[in-house]
Amino acid sequence: MKKRKEAWQDHKQECKCLKSIKPNFPPDSVRLAGRIVFKLLRPSVCLSEKLYSFSDLQSNTEQLSEEMKEGLRHLAQTLQLYLKAEIQDASQLPPAIDFFQIFTKVTCNCFTISNGEMQDVGVGLYPSMSLLNHSCDPNCVIVFEGYQLLLRSIQEIQIGEEDAEKLAGEEHAWKEVKDAVNGVRCPKSKEEWEQVLARCQNLLSSNADRLPDTNIYQLKMLDCAMDACINLGSWEKALNYGSRTLGPYRLYYPGFHPLRAVQLMRVGKLQYSQDMFPQALETLKQAYNIMKVTHGADHSLMQALMELKEQCEAVMRVQ
Question: What pLDDT digit, counting tens, does each position of 154-198 carry?
């Protein structure tokens, strides 16, 4: 209830703006920028600004192309229309609140919020987390519990050693596969999922001897096929595609990485659904060993994993 009351402080102004532009709906970036404006108009400092405030964020405007700048100007105009129900005259705002600059800072510093299975669900700004550097050998990872960002160390960090997060590298892939992966847009109906699966199966089959599963776009295609099968209830096929991803995930996300933990859990669930209990238990144990570090014992996904693991152990004791 306390969290709901705190959220209402943000949403009550947003709600008025959303109603004023119905039936249209603003992009996520415009909604985020609107919430930033409302926070900047309040004197209180939020927890995510404990080390670094919004005003401290870099915008790197000089590094943006003219095309990018024009797109951000268009978003700034959209934001002005969106906020009109709450802010009739944007020229009366404090000088520090510049709509264009807000978008340049959001572009450079926002985080993609993911759910428990690492699927994108929104965007957020966490100013203090913008102090992190990228590294191919990270000593910490980021996971989300709802909209709360959790920064968790995965190895001992020495005094003076910088925190870092992983920036996954890319490999060359056939343009056809890359375009197909990028062309998938959140299927909603059974027919749309069937179309996605057919496209994935066709490309995976035609590239079987030409593209290894370790190719980053081939891996994304396997993930896409797995998701399609899960949504269509084709558990055996989903397991086939999911099993092929485990080697590449181990290659790209070695050590303690939340993405690998979640993938292991998904494959373990599929093995459990196919009565492959010994294999499922081994896979779930691997997921557990990673997730207890990356997510922690209190995370909801960790608790779901432990429950599934215990169910698997109980079935094996009876057999």
Answer: 887 765 555 443 333 233 344 566 666 666 666 778 998 998 899
Q: Is 163 left (phi over 0), alpha (psi -120 to 50) or beta?
A: beta
Share of the chain above pLDDT 90, in %: 32
Name the strand (E) or helix (H) holding 138: none
Q: State the pairing for strand pair 148-153/140-145.
A: antiparallel
Whether 131 is covered by a domain: the verdict is no
Q: Are 83 and 37 in contact (CB under 8 A)?
A: yes
User: What mean pLDDT value characterizes the chain?
Assistant: 82
> For 66-70, which contacts have Cβ atoms below 8 Å and span 24 or more sequence positions?
68/107
Domain assignment of residue 277, yes or no: yes
Segment among 20-34, 81-95, 162-176, 275-289 with least mean pLDDT: 162-176
Identify whether residues 308 and 189 lie together within a single domain. Answer: yes
* Nearest residue to 258 (alpha-carbon basis) of 295, 305, 210, 285: 295
Q: List the alpha helices (DSSP H) in the chain.
A: 2-20, 28-40, 66-82, 99-109, 175-183, 190-206, 216-231, 235-252, 258-273, 277-294, 300-318
**115 and 218 both lie in a single domain:** no
Domain count along the chain: 2
CATH code at 115? 1.10.220.160
| Choice among 3-12, 165-174, 205-214 with the minimum mean pLDDT | 165-174
> What is the model's pLDDT at position 175?
56
Domain that holds residue 258: 175-318
